Amino acid sequence: MLADGVRHIRNLTNRESPLTLCGHRVPAGPSCGTPGGWWVASGGDAGTPTGSALLPNALEVSQAVDFARSVRRSVIVTLRSDGRPQLSNVLHLVADDGSVVISTCADRAKYRNLVRRPWAALHLTRDDFFAYAVLEGEVTLTPPAALRDDAVVDELVDYYRAVAGEHDDWDAYREAMVAERRAIVRVRPTYAYGMLGRPDDGDA
Fold it and tell me: How do the domains of the chain map onto residue ranges?
């Protein structure tokens, strides 16, 4: 039955008459694109998507960073030693220099992955699910917090304030950061793609 479904989808996407998806027209043809040009064939150099696969529209990095400022929740993608992706839900903030900052523990898989290969992607989605962006870039890491008054803990205090406001007990927070071996991760975006609005919003 799955094969029948795939054949049915292929037949639909190759029809000459336009289709609709969630109320939006979809042009005929194997590209399964949309009127706003959501999908384009993309090539690039090392570190960027290559090949003939269809990829979402490239965005200006500044556009995606501005979008990241409008949301707090994201999914970070790091790479395991065998090249497979590791995904984790995170809270992020955007620093003044445009880097995206998260906090993690040094014993987590994503931290170990980033020590081995300092690259990450962040997937950000608007609440209504009709806009998203992906930011890719190199990563810098702090060492794990070691002392309650060290520079890493000071950065973690700044991170918490920016994401959640004032803490009820900063002394307890600092001690927890050391006990958890927390660290700061900075993603410096160099490539972005996605869709920042419905096709009829004029933003796609």
Answer: 58-201
Q: Which class in CATH covers the domain with range 58-201?
A: mainly beta
Which of these, 47, 134, 123, 119, lies nearest to 78 by C-alpha position? 119
Pairing label, strands 119-125, 19-21: unpaired
Q: How far apart are CA 119 and CA 139, in angstroms?
A: 5
pTM of the model: 0.70
Burial of 21 (0-12, 13-18, 19+ CB in 10 A): exposed
Amino acid at 184: I
Tens-place pLDDT, residues 11-55: 433 433 343 333 333 333 333 333 333 433 333 343 444 443 445
pLDDT in tens, 152-173: 999 999 999 999 999 999 999 9
